[in-house]
Every structure is written in C-alpha cells, then in structure tokens.
Write a structure and sequence with these properties.
- The chain has 443 residues and is of the alpha+beta class.
- The protein contains 12 helices and 18 strands.
- It has an 8-stranded mixed sheet with strand order 6-10-11-18-17-16-13-12, sandwiched between helices. A 5-stranded mixed barrel has the order 1-2-3-5-4.
Length: 443
C-alpha cells in the first residue's frame, strides 16, 4: 500500500527555478506548450510557453536525433537541454536542446494566431475561440494583473483584521430589489441569483465585525454596453464600529495603495508587456454629488439634466475635471440622493434627501459603490414603509437589527471594471475571462 506524504518533487524545472538557481551550463528538463517554431535551416528556435512566460530553446543541426518536422505548434512537450546565458532571449537564457518528448499533439491548426505578440483579431473573434485566444501572452498578462488585484484585496483586508466569508448565490430575494434579477425554480419555491452579498455581509458584520468576499454577482439587465456584464466578480467588504462612511472610503484607499505597490513589485513583467502606467493613489479627492455636477456644468458647459443620478457622460467629465485640476485618476463622489440608493443606505441627518454613501470613479467610470448602512431596527422599518416594502419579505435579514447591530458600512467593487480602467481597455469584456452578456452564454 502506498501512502501519499505531500507534494511530489518533479524533475522538470520552471522559469523561476532556472533563474534563481545555478543552472548555467547544466542539463535541465522542462515541459511546456510549443508556442512557436522558427526553422532557420542549420539552427531552429522552439519557443515554449509556460505559465510564467516563454522559454527559448535552440535546436542545432546534428545535436539531437529528433526530427523537427514532427513537431507541431501547441504540442505539449518535455525537453532536456543545456542552459546557456542569452540576453536576447526571454528571461535572459535559452536551452540548447538534446531531446524532445511529445506528450500530446493538437488535431487541428489553430483558428487564431495566438503566438503573435498582437493577435490583430477583433474582440468578437477572440471571444468566439476564447479557450484558445487566452493562450496569447498579452491576453494572459491581463488576467495575471487581475490576479494581483484580488491578491491585494485579500492580503490587505486580512492585514486589517477582516475575515473572509462565502455567502449564498441562490437567494430568496435580491438585495437591490427591482426587476433585474435572474429568477429560479428552487424545488417549487421562488428564488433568484444574488444581485449582491449585501444582506449576508451585514449579517456577518454582527459576527466578525469586519468581513469580505470575492464572488460572482448577477444582474439581469438587458443592456449591451461596453461597461456592463450580466455576471461579474464583486470585491465586497463590510466593516463595523465605523465613525462614518469616510472610514469605508479610507479603507478602500488603503487597499488601492497596497495593491498598486504589489503590482509594481510582483507583476512588473505583465505591466511592462501591456505598457500599463499605474495610477498615483497617495490621496484621493472627495466631492459631494451635487457639487460634482455643478463643477462639470460650470467648466464644460454641460446642462444638468438629471439632478438625481450621474449619466455616463457626466462621470467621464467628473473624471476629466479631477485629472485636470488635481492630477488624480480617482475621485470619490459622495452623498448620492436617497431616492437613487437602496433602502438600507443611511440618510444624511443634515439633509435626508441625500445619503451617507459614495461611488468611486476611476478615469471617469464608476468602479465602486459603498456607504454607511442603517443599523437601527426602527429606522430601517420606517424607511421600508416609505418605500412600500413588506418587512416579511426579508424577515431573516431584519432579524439582525432586532437584536442589535453596530454602526457599519461597506462597499462593492467591480473587478472587471477596475481591471478595464487600469489597463485602459475600452470594453469590459476584454477583462472578463468568459464574459456573460445578453448575447453570450458560451464558451
């Protein structure tokens, strides 16, 4: 009988191991996918693709018995060869091949040139063959940077005493209300896909004080814009014992500062590949909702059409204003009108027409919504009554207020939107691994 005692040590090496070890002039074994083959006659270059990047392998005539004509791009192979320093090669080294072992081969030629640095294919063409197009090094770089954002979110919040939670996505009622929900038949009961983990975040704030979650969010809105998805990843946190919603904004600022440093340190290769300049986040300006509308109206001559909400064009102009006036890519817009915020948003005691809430705009696009929540039972019942809401519909949620809740607040960040703006992409589908919109259910 065999007992497994842990991770098995492999003979094959990765790029980092070769770079950090003393392997120059030594024979190593490496596996990967054949990204590209360049046959120059007496010498040929075989570029292997690994999760960490590309490895240049050199096949010299007469040095090995393997016939290069048998090798196809996208074959999975295991090679052995000698490591040689070469500054012009990816990573600063190459492998002089001795043997090649084919582990698997493709049945068909690629439908898209993933081995090109830039694929020069439309977004629709790339999404149609997404499992293949994601192999392109620039496409992969986007989602490594996105990984870094999530790492930053988790690591920073852990350092601030937050507990990670995992909440249901099949719910009896959406936290935001309205008609934009995906309805389900749940064993002959009415159910929905969660629009937000809001109720559960608040519940768990009464348990752990500070909680966060990284999870999918579902919105059944029949939009088809460059900024909307019907399923996206939400970075959510909720924190108790706050002095005001400004504590929530300060926590998000800290997350952004931590994350930009993490990206700069550990994702430099991907940032350089995509020519990304990280935004400065030493300080983020904050402006009231009504004042923001006045500022852009005065400077850019745009008439205020809707006093209760920000239109996409207004968001862009607000972003432009704070870039021009304060050289900031970010701006917190605070005190949104109560009629445009959910029932659980705390109204401003100084003027109940507004709420103690905010959006964070990044280069003119809303990437975060947050604020302080009502924590008193009678107060939340009163607000529900004004909106003709039935407390019985969300009795399990209202239970927390019956039995006491601390002052608390939180936010939700759209991961794909944040990544989109960071990379200066023009369509949020570019930063979603497998986008879900009104027309796309596969792959």
């Amino acid at each position: 009988m065999e007992f497994l005692t842990g991770v098995r040590e492999k003979e094959t090496l990765g790029i980092r191991q070769i770079l950090e070890g003393d392997y120059e002039g030594k024979t190593v074994k490496v596996n990967g996918s054949v990204h590209n083959i360049r046959d120059m006659g007496e010498v040929a270059f075989v570029i292997l693709r690994k999760a960490e990047g590309l490895i240049q392998c050199v096949c010299e005539e007469g040095r090995m018995e393997f016939d290069l004509k048998e090798l196809k791009e996208e074959s999975a192979v295991e090679v052995t060869g000698v490591v040689v320093r070469e500054d012009r090669a990816p990573g600063g080294f190459e492998i002089r091949l001795e043997t090649v072992k084919i582990l698997s081969e493709p049945d068909q030629a690629l439908p898209i040139a993933v081995n090109k640095y830039r694929m020069h294919a439309s977004l629709e063409a790339r999404l149609a063959v997404r499992p293949v197009s994601l192999r392109n090094v620039r496409e992969r770089a986007k989602f490594k940077i996105q990984e870094g954002i999530v790492r930053g979110f988790r690591d920073f919040l852990h350092s601030q005493g937050f507990t990670e939670i995992h909440t249901p996505k099949i719910v009896a009622r959406g936290a935001e209300g309205g008609s934009n929900v995906f309805r389900l038949d749940y064993f002959n009961k009415k159910a929905e896909l969660g629009q937000s983990p809001q109720f559960y975040k608040q519940i768990m704030t009464g348990v752990y004080d500070r909680v966060f979650e990284v999870a999918p969010v579902f919105r059944a809105e029949k939009h088809n814009t460059t900024r909307h998805l019907n399923e996206y990843v939400g970075l959510d946190f909720e924190m108790g014992y706050i002095d005001g919603f400004e504590d929530v904004m300060a926590m998000e600022t800290g997350f952004l500062q931590y994350t930009m440093e993490l990206l700069k340190k550990e994702y430099k290769k991907e940032l350089d590949m995509l020519e990304v300049t990280l935004p400065a986040v030493s300080g983020i300006p904050a402006v009231r909702f009504d004042r923001a509308k006045e500022l852009v109206s005065e400077k850019y001559g745009r008439r205020i059409k809707n006093p209760y909400d920000l239109e996409p064009e207004e968001e862009l102009l607000i972003g432009r204003y704070f870039k021009e006036e304060y050289d900031s890519d970010f701006v917190f817009v605070t005190h949104y009108p109560s009629k445009k915020r959910p029932f659980y948003a705390m109204d401003d005691p100084a003027d109940p027409k507004f709420t103690l809430s905010f959006d964070l705009l990044f280069k003119g696009l809303e990437v975060t919504t947050g604020g302080q929540r009502i924590h008193a039972y009678r107060e939340i019942l009163a607000k529900m009554e004004k909106r003709n809401m039935d407390p019985e519909d969300i009795a399990s949620y209202l239970m927390i207020f019956k039995y006491g809740m601390p002052p608390h607040g939180g936010l939700g960040i759209g991961l794909e939107r944040l990544t989109m703006r960071l990379l200066d992409e023009q369509n949020v589908r570019e930063t979603s691994l497998f986008p879900r919109d009104v027309t796309r259910l596969v792959p």
